[in-house]
Amino acid sequence: MGLLDRFKKIKEGLSRTRTNFVDKISKIITGKTKIDDELIDEIEEALLSADVGFTATEKIVGDIRARVKAEGYEDSGVLRVLLKEEIAKYLMEANGAEQAGPAPPHVVMIVGVNGVGKTTTVGKLAFNYSNDGKKVLIAAADTFRAAANEQLKIWADRAGVDIVQQQPGTDPGAVAYDAVSAAKSRGTDVVLIDTAGRLHTKTNLMEELKKIRRVVQKVIPEAPHEVFLVLDAVTGQNGLVQARQFLEAAGVTGIVLTKLDGTAKGGIVVAISQELSLPVKYIGVGEGIDDLQPFDRKTFVDALFSDQDSHD
Ligand code: GDP
Ligand code: MG
After folding, report:
1. What is the pLDDT of residues 166-224, one digit of tens each?
2. pLDDT, tens digit, 9 for 90 and up, residues 77-110
3. CATH number of the structural domain spanning residue 15
4. For 128-145, what is each residue's pLDDT tens digit?
5. Which atom of ligand 1 is closest in space to residue 286's alpha carbon?
């Protein structure tokens, strides 16, 4: 997918947030030509209602007030530019080089609660890696529902990649172990491990995830190279509470934020960067296989603030 197509996807995915947030900002700004405290208070409210979160909103608004004073701005129109710059500043850049081990496979574990989009994300990631010319293997380590296997198989077929599955009820660690061992012997580049979001046994989910990690490390000591925590943008601030549970237990290295297309509160991206101190690595902007986009803060704010009706 070309850069322009990516931009278009992200822009479309953010259309609800643009309507809610950017239109609101434009109205606030056009309603008053001179910058004053009241105007900045209204912008603060708009940020909070877009789920930017209290911490990040305070920082952004504080910086804007300071810049208005120091740089002597008077016309309200400049606020749109300041806001765009300040939002970008508080988004964590996700573009750091991925920490691949000395030899393939690169092992990526996908974790998160039920229904956030883990399995869908595994399918989309498989498609992305495969398009990059990588040989991919999916491990079906959500062994607690028979339907989970079928769903993942459909995604593997769509992405055109191999999958390792076992009977429902098999130990998820065993599936992960088999997959990583197979990948190592076949010279596979990337292993994507799908996991359960809830267990039907008495086993604690966090303990199960730790166990998958330990088992994988028996094959490749530095694996998993990445652990992506999948969060559903629609659940907003509640997702942040969930996230904290996973961070330590699962050794999360980055966030995949799904369903941005389904919310008007896309400001949650900023809240995540600020409150979890973890980069958002990918954003999900639809249910299609090509709807998982690498997150990059410049593209994100450009798409967010681009004009509603321009077709760029
Ligand atoms: P899991 O339980 O975490 O594995 O979640 P699933 O992958 O089964 O996804 C749950 C639902 O979320 C499915 O209906 C997906 O189509 C939907 N979904 C996942 N990602 C996105 C996204 O980025 N946008 C939209 N609109 N729906 C998504
Ligand atoms: Mg699933």
Report:
1. 999 899 999 999 999 999 999 999 999 999 997 655 568 899 999 999 999 999 999 99
2. 999 999 999 999 999 877 555 655 667 899 999 9
3. 1.20.120.140
4. 999 999 999 999 999 988
5. 24
User: Domain containing 117: what range?
Assistant: 106-295
User: Is 145 found in the same domain as 255?
Assistant: yes
Ligand 1 surroundings by CB, under 6 angstroms:
112, 114-120, 197, 258-259, 261-262, 284-287, 291
Ligand 1 mutation target, pool 258, 260, 269, 290, most atoms within 8 A of CB: 258
Phi, psi (rounded to 5 degrees) for 201? -110, -175
CA 56 – ligand 2 centroid, Å: 31
Which runs of E-coded beta strand occur in the chain?
106-111, 136-141, 162-164, 190-195, 226-232, 254-258, 280-284, 292-294
How much of the chain exceeds pLDDT 90, in percent?
82
Tell me if 278 sits within 8 A of 252, measured CB to CB: yes
